[in-house]
Amino acid sequence: MSRSPTTPSDHATAGTGFEASQAFLICSLANRINVIAERSVRQRLDLSLMEWRVLVVLAVEPAAPPGRIVAIASVNKAAVSRAVNSLERRGLLERKARAPNSRRRLLYLTQAGLDLHDQGSSSRVQFEEQLLMDLSATEREQFHRLLKLVLHNLDHSTL
């Protein structure tokens, strides 16, 4: 497998700088992805990143309550509420009562919301492909498995 000549050396095992901390590298990676994603989603879809995340969750899990979006996206309730309100005003999602006379509402994408999600998904796949282009299929599978393991450990951390 060939590596890009600009691939940095493995500072995680060699140095004492910021790169020596896996938590720092994970945060740095997440922050950089968020900046790029926010700009892309705003330019291509005229959405905030939080609005996009709500669309993604509802495309995968129709009829999700707002609390489910909070849990999946690991964000606060107020951010989800603002995004849901904005998407509803734009006709991209609708709220429906869970049962007659119920105060609890479930969220559904409208056809316009589904169409916008589909439009944005191809860009997301291309971005992910570009991000991981120097990894073999086996490395991608390992990376994915390791990320899920770290998330699991974080969810069960006692710190």
- Identify low-pLDDT runs: none
Net shape: globular
- Can you tell me the number of structural domains? 1
Percent of sequence in beta strands:
5-15%
Rg result: 19 Å
Mean pLDDT, to the nearest integer, reads 87
Strand order of the largest sheet: 1-2
Distance between the termini: 39 Å
User: What's the helical proportion of residues?
Assistant: 55-70%
The tally of strands reads 2
What is the CATH domain class? Answer: Mainly Alpha
Query: What about the largest sheet?
Result: 2 strands, antiparallel
Count helical runs.
7
CATH topology, by name, is Arc Repressor Mutant, subunit A
Helix- and strand-based class? mainly alpha
CATH H-level homologous superfamily name: Winged helix-like DNA-binding domain superfamily/Winged helix DNA-binding domain
From the 3D coordinates, which CATH architecture would you assign? Orthogonal Bundle
One letter per element, helices H and strands E, the order comes to HHHHHEEHH
Task: Explain this structure.
By secondary structure, the chain is mainly alpha-helical. It has one domain: Winged helix-like DNA-binding domain superfamily/Winged helix DNA-binding domain (Arc Repressor Mutant, subunit A), CATH 1.10.10.10. Helices cover 64% and strands 6% of the residues. It contains seven helices and two strands, in the order αααααββαα. It has a two-stranded antiparallel ribbon. A hairpin with a 7-residue loop joins strand 1 and strand 2. The longest helix has 24 residues. The radius of gyration is 19 Å and the shape is globular.
